[in-house]
């Protein structure tokens, strides 16, 4: 199982974005980040829109975006003008998921569908064969440091049982206390926010998480 631990970036200004990209690349040595985009409607928080910031930043890091926005289909063509290679779209945010997946896949993008903690895995059934991974929210989305929702672990186990060949990504309160449980449930991709950014030694923080997974 190929394991990925990916720092997330959730910011309100261009300066914050550039600072965090630089830290992730130069201090932590990561090669991919997960950029949260929030519109203040789908979730009660707003961030940079991301288009201009990504276009103008100088980095070798691969960037994936997590679209926590209503009607993401209205943004897809604009995103396709950027270097973003991976997209996470919420099943709760659109009635045009098929169209979104098709548009992204036609442009060779990596596509995942996100589920909020209270959303049933049944909502994925129509799209399973068309996507690259499933993204489970283990917190209510929109902010760093939200409370972990342990009930999602059982949902992840159920999904992994029925769709063992579909990679699972998790997002929310991933830290040394939770990552082992998530790995045992079948998760192979971990989005890490607060734990990473609050750690004094960020490279060591990622190594700590990796070691926990290796011992599972």
TrEMBL record:
Keyword list, A-Z: Carbohydrate metabolism, Iron, Isomerase, Manganese, Metal-binding, Zinc
Domain of life: Bacteria
Membrane-spanning ranges: none
Gene Ontology terms for molecular function: metal ion binding; racemase and epimerase activity, acting on carbohydrates and derivatives
GO biological process: carbohydrate derivative metabolic process; carbohydrate metabolic process; generation of precursor metabolites and energy; nicotinamide nucleotide metabolic process; purine nucleotide metabolic process
Cofactor or coenzyme needed: Mn(2+); Fe(2+); Zn(2+)
Assembly and binders: Homodimer.
PANTHER family documented for this protein: RIBULOSE-5-PHOSPHATE-3-EPIMERASE
UniProt protein name: Ribulose-phosphate 3-epimerase
Species this protein is from: Candidatus Yanofskybacteria bacterium CG10_big_fil_rev_8_21_14_0_10_36_16
